[in-house]
């Protein structure tokens, strides 16, 4: 005789990338799995599953959060921004490729701040939130801002350059002085 067990499902409704989304999930479903499997938003990557690498970072009400450390049920009624949502941010613009990119995405492309791309979604969301708090970082501050995200490919120099370039792009788009004008 086989015994079947059924888990109680909980209705979870969140706003993801500006769209209200709902699903019924077990209480122990991680936010990363909810996004990837229930909502089919696979841009959020799962690396270490311990909150160390930062690949799964999303924005919860604008703040970076390791989605592998948060249960989906605790995201109820919160606003989640995944890497897919960055291209629809108010400061996103159409790039020469025809794709819409926010300043951080554009800077990572311009400065070659990515290689294999696995860690990139976590860096993009982390840096996007960081620049809201510190719009004009120094190189050292940029290093500190990304210190919680791991990359096995780049050596971080181009990621730091990307953070600084993203700050410039944000300033340009806001009508602020360019890097040359500040110098």
Structure notes:
It contains seven helices and seven strands, in the order E-E-H-E-E-E-H-E-E-H-H-H-H-H. By secondary structure, it is an alpha+beta fold. The strands form two sheets. Strands 2-1-5-3-4 form a five-stranded mixed beta sheet, with helices on both faces. A two-stranded antiparallel sheet has the order 6-7. Helix 3 (103-110) crosses helix 6 and helix 5 crosses helix 6. The model has no long low-confidence stretch (mean pLDDT 91). It comes from Terrabacter ginsenosidimutans. This is (2Fe-2S)-binding protein. Pfam families: Fer2 (PF00111), Fer2_2 (PF01799).
Which descriptors apply to this entry?
single chain, 183 residues, alpha+beta, five-stranded mixed beta sheet, two-stranded antiparallel sheet, 7 helices, 34% helix, globular
Could you give the order of strands across the largest sheet?
Answer: 2-1-5-3-4
Unreliable stretches covering 5 or more consecutive residues: none
> What structural class do you assign from the helix and strand content?
alpha+beta
Number of strands: 7
Average pLDDT score: 91
Fraction in helix: 25-40%
Biggest sheet character: 5 strands, mixed
Strand fraction equals: 15-25%
User: Could you tell me the radius of gyration in angstroms?
Assistant: 18 Å
Q: Tell me the span between the first and last alpha carbons.
A: 77 Å
The SSE order reads EEHEEEHEEHHHHH
Shape: globular
In DSSP terms, counting alpha (H) and pi (I) runs of 4 or more, how many helices?
7
């Amino acid at each position: 005789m086989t015994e079947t067990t059924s888990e109680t499902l909980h209705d979870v409704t969140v706003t993801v990338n500006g769209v209200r989304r709902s699903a019924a999930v077990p209480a122990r479903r991680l936010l990363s799995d909810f996004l990837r499997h229930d909502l089919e938003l696979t841009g959020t990557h799962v690396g270490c599953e311990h909150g160390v690498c930062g690949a799964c970072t999303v924005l919860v009400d604008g703040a970076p959060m390791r989605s592998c450390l948060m249960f989906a049920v605790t995201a109820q009624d919160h606003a989640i921004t995944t890497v897919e949502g960055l291209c629809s941010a108010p400061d996103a613009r159409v790039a020469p490729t025809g794709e819409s990119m926010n300043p951080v995405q554009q800077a990572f492309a311009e400065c070659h701040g990515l290689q294999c791309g696995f860690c990139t979604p976590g860096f993009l969301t982390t840096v996007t939130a960081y620049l809201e708090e510190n719009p004009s970082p120094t190189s050292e501050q940029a290093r500190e801002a990304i210190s919680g995200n791991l990359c096995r490919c780049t050596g971080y120099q181009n990621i730091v350059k990307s953070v600084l370039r993203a700050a410039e792009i944000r300033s340009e788009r806001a009508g602020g002085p360019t890097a040359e004008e500040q110098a």
